[in-house]
Amino acid sequence: LSSICCASSCPMKPWFDITISLLFHDTSFSTSECILGQSLGNHCIKFSFSLKMTNNSRSFSSNNSEDFITVLGLGSLLSERSSRTTFPNLCNFRLGRVPNYRRVFGHPASVFFQNDVANSVTLEMSSLSAEYAGDDEATGFICSIFEVPNDMMMKDGIPSVAYLEREEEFDIVSVPYLDFTAIGEKKREGGILCTRSSDETFLERWGKERFEKHYKKYGIHTIWGWKPDSGLRPCAPYLRHCVLAAKAMGQECYDSFLDETFLVDRTTTIRSYLESNPQIMITEPPPGLRERYGG
Hints:
Elements: E1 2-6, E2 16-22, H1 32-37, E3 51-53, E4 68-73, H2 80-86, E5 91-99, E6 101-108, H3 110-114, E7 124-132, E8 140-149, E9 154-155, E10 158-159, H4 161-166, E11 171-179, E12 187-195, H5 199-206, H6 208-214, E13 233-234, H7 236-248, H8 251-259, E14 261-262, H9 270-276, H10 279-282
């Protein structure tokens, strides 16, 4: 006869304290998930338990946990499936809001050229970033929130080289956010977000050779220097992917993406842009990229 105390492995989930009395043959369990998922076969089991559940999520971020960090997704990371492609060990995928930041299609991304989905003739080649918009908390957008094992992604609030490699053109910063799953939508600190950077920062971080390979090679002479009247437009397959991902997360997230995401002019919303360009949502990505850009 044995007693085992179990807890969920994800630091942000509501968690369980379970005391279980088990009579079994040479079988042991270490977590509640294992107990509930174990095939019992012919084991003779007698158990009693008390269950305590709390909705008070514990906040872990790059600033207060060495084990987990909180990621805020604004575009493709609105899709849990897409997020798991980059972060297979993520947990507690949910929605929240980033106040004081604007979501903008304001810079070209090298990956679009590498995947041959950018159109430099029509300037349909921009990706998303967040940019600080002042102290008015009415400005903001709905985001995804999830935790990932640190695995050296951040150190003392500074992104690791490995993480920067994946998000090469951005400034990765820690910002406050509202967690919709917390009682009273509590404002928390320390979610990391991909924000607007500068050409100078890119060159300082990666050097001229990388800029020439990832951008100038495709006729792009600036990443972050696109003016509001430049005519820069979203990369169409990527925009479709983000819209589908937002829609799958529910009406509130969908409306936020349509009405709180802007073109480079910081005026035209994605809702307005799609009304003028309906072909974007009915055009499939290239066959080899349909899963990656499938919403």
